[in-house]
Design brief:
The chain is mainly beta. The chain is built from 4 helices and 20 strands. The chain has a single domain, classed as 3-Layer(bba) Sandwich (YerB-like fold).
Length: 354
């Protein structure tokens, strides 16, 4: 187990209410039966008073998926590590496979100002994920707190040296066997795909992974200004817009001017979107630059149709990022999928009020 965050909870305690008949109620009911005349049928004319059963509470343990905050009654994620897969995010890569089933997705800026995805899987393991693309320097900062398995297509020497220092098992097309494959109907390099179920069998550690976020309990709701939509202003044509969908209580994602859907037609729509304002060391879109995720900076957290403004902070590589509002309270997310947007501090978030 990696150091740091050792006190993160893995279980949520839920109260299970069971109805029990009290001894007094049993006595009264028995008295009613004995008072019934022999051979009587239908309704008794004797007026009686009954006592309603009282409720007792029996505590129960429900295992919770550490990366979504959702109940995992089969404890599937208890026996898994995190699995991070690098995914292409260019127009040539569309439509993508498997992104909608990731627990957490990081969107990062790479050379030229385009964006790539680092999708983290745990609760769901789709058989087709991709297109899979190459590692970048920022990926080390992303995966250090969770470890596990990191799958990618290759990379430049500087990026390979960087990810080699992270506590992850590395797999690419050269050593993954049938867990990665090419689609002959797509052009290179946008045709490499991964099987998340087979990759998970590579046995990453720690198992289970540690939580990245804090979640709202049942019956709790986020509070803040209402938001109709917001745009994460990635430049170079990669700005992404999220629109609140009150019927699904998710943020519908749009990219390149239209709603973004997976290859099987599912709308990409996370429950939460975290926009971190970060410094790209070396310059935005410059080769060998990376998102500085150690330290602190501004953050906007969108959940439940509202926005909460605050700050992100992270003390070292092993620790997860903590998100607090302007009052210093930890921001809690709705259980479900979360996207983290690593926006350069020279770019803007535009919010349309609800």
């Amino acid at each position: 187990m990696l150091p740091g965050d050792r006190d993160c909870p893995r279980f949520a305690r839920l109260a299970v209410v069971r109805h029990a008949v009290t001894p007094l109620a049993v006595v009264l009911l028995l008295g009613m039966v004995l008072a019934q005349p022999a051979g009587a049928s239908g309704t008794s004319t004797t007026s009686t008073t009954t006592t309603q059963p009282t409720a007792t509470t029996t505590p129960s343990h429900v295992y919770v998926d550490p990366l979504t905050g959702l109940a995992d009654p089969r404890h599937l994620t208890q026996d898994r590590s995190a699995l991070t897969i690098k995914i292409d995010n260019t127009p040539q890569a569309m439509p993508q496979y498997g992104v909608q089933e990731a627990d957490v997705v990081y969107e990062e800026i790479v050379e030229g100002g385009i964006t790539r995805l680092a999708a983290i899987f745990d609760s769901q393991l789709p058989s087709v994920v991709g297109p899979v693309r190459s590692v970048r320097r920022t990926d080390r900062e992303i995966v250090f707190p969770i470890g596990g398995i990191f799958a990618f297509s290759g990379g430049a020497e500087y990026a390979l040296r960087s990810i080699a220092t992270a506590p992850v098992k590395l797999y690419d097309e050269s050593n993954s066997g049938p867990a990665m494959f090419r689609d002959p109907n797509r052009p290179v390099p946008h045709n490499l795909f991964a099987n998340a179920e087979l990759l998970m069998k590579k046995d990453g550690v720690p198992r289970p992974t540690r939580p990245l976020f804090t979640y709202l309990a049942a019956g709790q709701f986020a509070h803040g200004p209402k938001v109709r939509s917001f745009t994460v202003g990635f430049e170079a044509g990669y700005a992404v817009t999220y629109t609140w969908n009150p019927s699904t209580r998710r943020w519908d994602r749009s990219l390149f001017g239209s709603l973004e859907k997976s290859a099987n037609g599912v709308q990409l729509a996370p429950k939460n979107v975290i926009v971190m304002s970060v410094d790209y060391v070396g310059g935005v879109g410059v080769i060998d630059s990376y998102a500085q995720m150690i330290g602190s900076g501004p953050v906007e957290v969108f959940t439940g149709g509202v926005v909460q403004h605050g700050h992100w902070s992270r003390s070292n590589l092993y620790h997860r990022t903590v998100f607090t509002n302007d009052q210093g309270t930890v921001i809690k997310l709705a259980p479900g999928q979360t996207w983290v947007e690593l926006l350069a501090n020279t770019e803007q978030v535009t919010i349309v009020p609800g």
